[in-house]
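U., I forgot to send this yesterday:
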Amino acid sequence: MSPSSIQWQIATVKSIRIETPRVKTLTLGLPDWKRHQPGQHYDIRLTAEDGYQAQRSYSIASEPERMGEIDLTVEKIEKGEISPYLHDVLVPGDLIEVRGPIGGYFVWDAGIKIPLLLIAGGSGIVPLMAMLRHRAAIGEHTPVCLLYSSRTFEDIIYQHELENLQQRENGPKVFHTLTRTHPKEWKGYTRRIDTEMLQEVIQPLGPAFQTFICGPTLLVESAAEALVSLGVPPTQVRTERFGPSNPAQGG
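Result:
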């Protein structure tokens, strides 16, 4: 189904949760809720008094098992047209125009019983979190490894929830890397994602696994190239980029 065939609807902001100093999660109640696939997104549209409209796409963070509402986790882009409004103006009870769910390529089908490698940079964790939450909700035991790159410890989105998921029986194996600064007691990686790091992370998954990579363009491209160099078939690697040519998760 193309985005143009999906109708706009008026969602109600049920709650707003602070994730990091620059990231908030909006819980939206939807009068026309439809079950989404983990990895899909919603469009948000704002209309000014003079009729000017701005529109951006934001990945769904919540699992499809939650009925009637969705979570959208939004990073504030200082010169963006929409994210500053969502962060600084929107309050619970407000109404906002949305449409979705949208997208069919970057989605995970839990029925495909092969191990899963998730690689995220920054707010690229959002659609992958929907996959992890869905996996937990249905009690899926397929092995999963997550490699999450953040600038600093304070920038890790869903930090405590990721820890809790990892501690569950058959929970995902979570690997973090911090690329700018890190606490003295930090035990994770402290560099950008590279081939050596990926070779270590994929060890628990065995020879065959499906990969989803989401984040800034350079991270996505370098991680995908490194995996292919390690023998991972390109057909098993799905990517979603954030950058000037793609409004997803930005603006």
